[in-house]
Amino acid sequence: MTAAKSGTGPVLDVRGLTIALPTHSDRPEAVSEVSFSVERGEIVCLVGESGSGKSVIAQAVMGLLPDSLPLTVGQVLLEGEDIAHAGRDRLRQLRATRMSMVFQEPMTALNPVMRCGDQIDEVLREHTALGPAERRAKILDIIREVALPDPERIVMSYPHQLSGGQRQRIMIAMALVLEPALLIADEPTTALDVTTQAQILELIKTLQARHGMGVLFITHDFGVVAEIARRVAVLRLGRLVETGDKDAVLKRPRHDYTIMLMNSVPDFKPHGRPIAPDQPIVLQTKKLDKTYAERGWFSARRVVHAATDVSLEVRRGQTLGIVGESGSGKSTVARCIVRLIDPTGGEVYIHGEEIARRSHRALRPLRRKVQIVFQDPYRSLNPRRTVGEAIIEGPVNYGLSRSEAFERARRLMDLVRMDAAALERYPHQFSGGQRQRICIARALAMEPELLIADEAVSALDVSVQAQVLELLEEIRERLNLAMLFITHDLRVAAQVCDHVAVMSQGRVVEYGPANEVFVSPRHAYTQALFAAAPGRDFAFGQA
Amino acid sequence: MAATGDTRYEELSVEAADIRPHETTWQRVKKSGSVRLGGAALAVLLLIAAAAPWLGTVDPTMFDAGSRDLVPGKAGEMMTLDGDLLRHTFWFGSDSLGRDIYSRVIYGTRVSLFVGVVVALLSLVGGILLGLVAGYIRWLDGVIMRVMDGIMAIPAILIAIALVAMWRPSLSTVIIAIAIPEIPRVTRLVRSLVLTIREEPYVEAAISLGSSTPKIMFGHILPNTIAPLVVQGTFICAAAILIEAILSFLGVGLPPEIPTWGNIMAEGRIAFNEYPHTVFIPGIFLTVTVLAVNILGDGLRDTLDPKMAKRI
Q1: Is A362 exposed, middle or buried (0-12, 13-18, 19+ CB in 10 A)?
Q2: pLDDT value of residue A537
Q3: Is A436 exposed, middle or buried (0-12, 13-18, 19+ CB in 10 A)?
Q4: In this structure, how many other beta carbons lie within 10 angstroms of the beta carbon of residue A84?
Q5: Strand A302-315 vs strand A281-294: parallel, antiparallel, or unpaired?
Q6: Is B198's Cβ below 8 Å from some Cβ in A?
Q7: Closest CB to A340 among B4, B207, B220
């Protein structure tokens, strides 16, 4: 500890950390022999796909491991003091004062029934002997430091009165109010929109430089890594496969796994595939509108415009991307086109036939032409039906016999590169990426002309995402499908789209060929959105 | 985004680790201590009910004025309707009419379990149909739920008494009278489940696959409500057994000649001070049965609850 106080030696030094998993898990250890360090004044990114054990490491450092995951071997040195087996009282002293943590979801990490100021005050009351006036001054100072406007008002606000980004700033303020030596940030920007994310990343960088603390930043997003890290540690199935400086790991990866990951990160540049001219229009929307009216008996009507004046078209064999932040109305448009919700105004044409106004009965023959793949692979398949039943459901609805439908399902499994034996099994026996392939097969079983992918790869890890994107691309080409690709991820959009529509607050603010929009965005919002994309100019896997 | 060949991908991917070893629901249910205990106790009761005639019982309606108010374990004689004299040991004693309490309690098990199970099934079926319709067909929601609220506003036991009073007391009227006040509870549960499940992407996928409304309701939504309904069913079963006993005890349930635990207790009440066993013995059977059903229900809830199922 003496070395630490004088400012030499790493802030955090993890040595041979091994954490056991309960018996009957997929592997014996959550984390195996992981060693890395965080120096004073540097940001180390711990990256890995889901299940790699990165959050478990953060919990181990903070002493927050559940009893089911015991720390078996290894040391966790915080400023030279081994806290791997520290008692509860000692850990409580250290938390907030020497080490702090910022979590992914700022809404659930803050107490919803406590004012933000009181939540920060709680930390001060617990760990310092300051009087009320000093504490208040300190709270206002830290709120100013995390660049929140009007500190007096923020102190009196409840979490729900603030935006996601503001809430995350409060979390950071709480974590930093006692100037800890180590900040652990566990996916702090994952739940935020890209423009907010950019601001929070900037804030963490600024504060880190100003206070000279060590930051352990956990993320799965390589764009974020490129933006913020000085050094990177790559985890795979609980083992550290590669550590090094950011440029070394991201540009000249040595381990096969890291190389594969870097190859999987989509480029920010549009793909530049030639667009075949004069293809027939498959989907056209004209001034599509969707408003939600909140009707209260005693209150005034409140109208929410989810989509306004949306006019788009998709031709056969082409992909139109709709990009935008959460709440921009992109999914609303998709759901109106599939008629999962009824548009309030405007027209939707599928091959020239208007469907926005049709009754559900009259719509039925046209439903098969438009199919959709959803975001969450864990919720898009009925857990009580076999994969085969799921895939044949549509064709059977439209009069195909079960045996013919199963024959088609077998062919489709081949197309999505899965074993036909999967048809007999239930969804829970498959991973997220495999389930998404099954969902694609289910959609294709209808032989649609328009395939809508509503954030279809957003829930997948980057390597799996690359596989599914490749599959979608191959299918679009082979079946000459029109595709509507909805995503918040600009990299993915650049990779797959021929045309791009940028949506903000329910309106299309910019619409054009991907090459033009990505290279020279005209609308101010598009420019801001693209500028905020983390690591946009970083060349992954290229020295 | 370079294409990584499939073999290479398999080798490097961590995706395989995504699939956790999965215990089937049935395996989890079998492991639960509560399910085993409650299930075993119920199995014994079911055996008793099924084997009632061979467990040393006599006709539970037969009485002999010479063997009135016997204490448990006492031997006595009974005259059958054919005039034969039967030597019989009254293990649980006899009541004020000279009926064998042991035989009545054992045969009463049949009535209680039958009432419990049939009421649970009836109210589940009624509640499922109403709940599905209310949850999925929105314009019927208001109508159905307000009727259900109306029924729920009246105490269950009062509705049952009123219904039995309206009809002739018999097994079927008692069952229906107990089932009706239970239906709104099931309807509410099913409706709330439907409201969540109907928003699931797999239901939306079924809509876009052109599946008909009945197919979505019964093929996609209903199977996903089964687990909580099984649990609810056990609690209804326990409640129904109790309500039947209460109705019989109050004299508004099954006719007194039918041996039910409630009837036995009602008759024993008069001479309770001298012969408390006439109330206690059927009371103990009633308690054990209701407890067994509830323990089974608790165990099922713990194992079938989807939140608990998500643990590693």
Answers
A1: exposed
A2: 82
A3: buried
A4: 17
A5: antiparallel
A6: no
A7: B207
B169-211 residue pLDDT tens: 888 999 999 999 999 999 999 999 999 999 999 999 999 999 9
Quick check: is B262 in a domain? yes
Among the partner residues A26, A374, A446, nearest to B17 by beta-carbon distance = A26
- Statement: residue B265 has pLDDT above 90: no
- Burial (0-12, 13-18, 19+ Cβ within 10 Å), A234: buried
Asked if residue B80 belongs to a domain, the reply is no
Asked, for residue B94, whether it belongs to a domain, the answer is no
CB contact under 8 A, A379 and B2: no
Residue A105 token pair: 């979801």
Distance CA(A315)–CA(A283), nearest Å, equals 7
Instruction: For A448-469, write each residue's pLDDT tens digit.
Output: 999 999 999 988 888 889 989 9
Q: How many CB atoms lie within 10 A of CB A507?
A: 16
Cβ within 8 Å of residue A472, ≥6 positions away: A440, A451, A453, A456, A483, A496
Which architecture, in CATH terms, is A2-264? Answer: 3-Layer(aba) Sandwich (3.40)
CA-only gyration radius of chain B, Å: 26
Distance separating alpha carbons of residues A335 and A452, to the nearest angstrom? 9
- What is the SS3 assignment for B109? helix
Whole-model pTM over 0.95? no
In this prediction, residue B302 has a pLDDT band, given cuts at 50, 70 and 90, of confident
**Residue A315 pairs with which residues in a beta bridge?**
A281
* Cα nearest neighbour of B226 on chain A: A384
Distance CA B183, CA B236 (A): 10
Rg (CA), chain A: 26
Q: Cα(A489)–Cα(A473) distance, rounded to whole angstroms?
A: 17
Number of structural domains (chain B) is: 1
List CB contacts (< 8 A) between B211 and chain A: 393-394, 397
Minimum distance, in Å, between the CA of residue A179 and any CA atom of chain B = 36
- Check: CB of residue A76 under 8 Å from CB of residue A84: yes
Please state the domain extents for chain A. 2-264, 376-443
* Nearby residues of B185 by Cβ (< 8 Å), 6 or more positions away: B123, B127, B152, B232, B236
Nearest CA in chain B to A267: B1
User: Scanning every residue of chain B, which has its alpha carbon at the shortest distance from the alpha carbon of A385?
Assistant: B220
* CA dist., res. A516 & res. A537, Å (int): 17
Q: Count of CB atoms within 10 A of residue A386's CB?
A: 17
Neighbours of A416 (CB within 10 A): 21
For residue range B108-163, what is the model confidence (pLDDT) as tens digits?
A: 999 989 999 999 999 999 999 999 999 998 899 999 999 999 999 998 888 888 88
Tokens 């180590």 map to which residue? A182
Q: How far apart are the first and last CA of chain A?
A: 40
Distance CA A183, CA A171 (A): 12
Residue type, position A419, single letter: D
| B26 burial type by CB count under 10 A (0-12 exposed, 13-18 middle, 19+ buried) | exposed
Digit-coded pLDDT (tens) for A370-379:
999 998 888 9
For residue A206, which amino acid is it? T
CB B136 within 8 A of CB B194: yes
Range of the domain at B297: 25-58+101-309
- Cross-sheet strand order for the sheet of A450-454: A370-373, A450-454, A482-487, A319-323, A499-504, A507-513
- Looking at residue A159, what DSSP letter applies? G
Q: Quick one: closest CA in A to B23, which residue? A: A24
Considering only CB atoms, A379 lies closest to which of B22, B200, B312, namely B200
